[in-house]
Every structure is written in C-alpha cells, then in structure tokens.
Specification:
The protein is 44% helix and 17% strand. It contains 13 helices and 8 strands. Strands 5-6-7-4-8 form a 5-stranded parallel sheet, with helices on both faces. The protein has a 3-stranded antiparallel sheet with strand order 1-3-2. It is elongated and about 60 Å long.
Length: 248
Amino acid sequence: MTRVQMLASLARPLADVLVDRIRTSGNSLLKLQMQATDVSHQRQYSLSLEDKEETGDLASTRIMRPDDVAVAILLGRALDARRDLLTRLQDRDTVAIIEVQDCEHVELVERLVEKHVFGTDASVFDGDALTLTENAAAIPGMVALFARHGEEKSKKAAKSGNPEFAAAVQRRCAILGIACEPDRRLPPNLVLMAKDRFVMGRLDGATIASVIEAITGKHPGLVEEGLAKLTTLEVLNTAIRADLGAER
C-alpha cells in the first residue's frame, strides 16, 4: 500500500492529519535561536508545541508557521472531498490537478504534497526538468509535479506545447499539476488529459480560526467573514503567534 493510499484510508479528517505531520516535522517548522540566558526571549517563545534542543549557550525553539498550517487545512479538506482520487494519485498514467484559489498558495502546496502526501515512498520530480530521450525509463512510483507560481511558465507552456509534459507521459509517471487558474496556467495537454482535480477553498473564517487554534492551543471563537476576505498568508504569519494567545 502506498502512502497516499494509507492517507486515504484514515478515519480522521485529513486536515488534522496534515497539521499533525507539520507539527512533528522539523523541516517544516521555523527554527528560532535565542540566548539561553535571555529570560525575556525564553518567555516570549515558551510554547506548548515547542521542541527545544540545548546547544551550548543557544536554545532552539521550533514554531509552526501559520501559512503552512492554513494550506494544510485547505488541502486536507480538498483531499477529503476526493478520497477516491487520492487512492489513485500515485498510480502510473494518473493525470490530476490541484486547483488553488491564490497563487501565493502554490509553493506551500507543492512542498506539502511532496513531503507529507507522497512522502519518501515516491520519487517526486520537477516536471519542467524532464526531457524526452530515446531510451527513457519508467520508474515505479515516480511522480512529475508541474507547479505554476505565476505567469512566466504559463506563457512558456502555451507557446511550446510543453515537451516536458510529453516526457512525463512517456515515462508513465503519475502527473500532478498545481496552479491557480489551472486551465490557463498549466500545460494545455495536461489540462486536456486530467480527468480529475482537487479544488482547494479560500481562506475563510473557519479556516483562520482553526489556524489560530493549532498555533495557540485555543479556539478564538467566531472570525468574521469580512475580515477573512482581507486576510492573506502573509497577514497570518504577522498576526498569529503562540505567545500572544488566541484572543489577541
């Protein structure tokens, strides 16, 4: 059973599962260093979710990033809605799309998918780095990611027809496109061949409240939708900090 199949079989909401994986993953956390003798800094970053490692005179505190948590919640909900597709996501000849609502989400989704959805049992490659060669070998478990962060690659794909996508098809990879406005930004042939997609929602009040709860350990209550519409990932990283508490 592949990791994506195991993920699809879990009874828990996948948003919770992905947040937990971020919480326990050192590479997904922001590491802050401060002087161990500086009491004010120790108090400021004395968190319930910390993992401290004393190294000489320095202490390292790991803090979950609000933007990582927000994207994990939105992606988890999208995966929950298509668990049937999730079970097939790593299969050869699968072509699928993750549609995000904001381009600033793409890079975080790409990282989250590679590390916490596919994990180490898959060989994940940048699809744009593939070339069509005479003796291309099919690699079991190989996944080609085509992530579109902005306009540059989408224009290139439209002009060239994307030979890199053809190379991924010839290798019989699982192929996954990640983009906002995927019909415009992803390689045209990828969009044509993709029969299924995960659609991630926008940041809303419930999502923001869940992010605050994950970071601070306490639910903040109702977050107004008018405020949520003005919120970006950058705003979340600025506004949410564990030592401030949920209410603040």
